[in-house]
Design goal:
By secondary structure, this protein is mainly alpha-helical. It has 3 helices and no strands. Helix 2 (about 25-40) packs antiparallel against helix 3 (about 45-55).
Length: about 60
């Protein structure tokens, strides 16, 4: 096996490695970062869309 083939094989193996499951907190963090970037760039439509997604990703506590 050539050196290039070995390097590509290892890269593919790493890409297939198990990733930790995505959590609600992780999704919320990513959405908040994206919204802040959209705000900084003046992308009002994108920021509004991200705000809606953020609201949907917030945990909901049901009252008794």
């Amino acid at each position: 096996m050539s050196r290039l083939s070995l390097t590509l094989s290892r890269a593919l193996e790493k890409g297939r490695a198990a990733r930790p499951p995505v959590t609600r907190a992780g999704v919320l963090r990513a959405l908040l970062r994206k919204r802040a970037t959209a705000h900084g760039q003046g992308a009002e439509e994108l920021e509004a869309m991200l705000r809606e997604q953020i609201l949907l990703s917030l945990p909901i506590e049901r009252g008794e």
